[in-house]
Amino acid sequence: MFSKYRILIFTENPDELMKFYRDVLELPLDEANSLKLPNDYGYMFTVNGDWKLWIGRHSGIKGASKEPFRHIFNLYVGSVGEWYDKIKSRGAKIVSEPCETPFSTPEKPFWVSTFLDPENNCFQFMGLP
């Protein structure tokens, strides 16, 4: 079966997109696995153990995502409301405020909030209110 999980986000400007994930989402930049070559480079973030996010330059990418909801990545957090407030105060594009998911029950509340990165890639915080 599969042994690792990676998300690759390609952009024409990885330096700027890297700053969003490092500064707004507070993901730790993994300098040892970042790559800096003249024409092909990018940045690796360790999200949780083996869960990695790569942001890299790609010559076939121009501008922001034209279909931001085609792929939505979920980030599971302890408090959806806290992360929503944090990224909103840092200027992230908010798609939806925190709300209950259809899977939420009184015994197990489960909330979601949706946002876009600076290039219109869609992410959601999932977890407790």
UniProtKB/TrEMBL annotation:
Gene3D superfamilies: 2,3-Dihydroxybiphenyl 1,2-Dioxygenase, domain 1 (3.10.180.10). This is VOC domain-containing protein. InterPro entries: Glyas_Bleomycin-R_OHBP_Dase, Glyas_Fos-R_dOase_dom, VOC_core. Residues 3-128 form the VOC domain. The lineage of its organism: Bacteria, Candidatus Gottesmaniibacteriota. SUPFAM superfamilies: Glyoxalase/Bleomycin resistance protein/Dihydroxybiphenyl dioxygenase (SSF54593).
